[in-house]
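Hi P.,

Sorry for the delay on this. The queue was packed all week, but I finally got your sequence through. Input first:
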Amino acid sequence: MSFGDAMQRRADILRKRGADMDKTFIEISKGATMKYVEAATEKTPPNTGDVGGTNTQSGELKSHWAADSVMVPQIYRHTSAGNEYETLGQNNVQYASYVDQGHRMDKHFVPGLVINPVTKRLEKVSSDVGGIMVGTKTQYVPGVFMSETGRDAYEEFALKEMNLLLREVFKP
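Then the structure:
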C-alpha cells in the first residue's frame, strides 16, 4: 500500500468518526453549561446550615441560576472558521452582581429591617415598625465569586470532554 492510499484511508476513517461533530459539540456545550450552573448555585449564599432571621433569606438568588441560564446552544455557522456554539450562564436577579463581586456599604437607613432583640438576627418586618442604620460597622462586603466558580467548572468539563473526543477521533 502506498503512502497516498494510507493517507486517503486514514482521512476516510476520520471523516466517518467526525460525522456527528455538531451533535457532539451541542452535548458538550449543554453539559458544560450544566456544570457552570451547578457550581455557581452551590457557591451562591446561603450555602451553610446557618439560616438567617425571619423573612431575610428567600433562596431567590440560588434558584435563578437554573431559571435564567440558556442551556441549549445557539449555533452560529461560519463558512471559513467552522461553527460556534454559544450557551449562557447567568443570573438576572437585580442584586446578583453585588453578591458576586462585592460592594461598598454606605451608611444609610433601611426601613422594615430590624434586629430581633431575642435572637439577635436580622428580620424583615413592616416598614411601619421601624428600621436600622446599615453600613456603620461593615463598610465593604466582599464578593463570593459565584460566576467565576461556574466559569472554572465550565472550562474544566469542556476541556475534559474535548480531550476525550480528540482521543476517540484520532485513535488508530
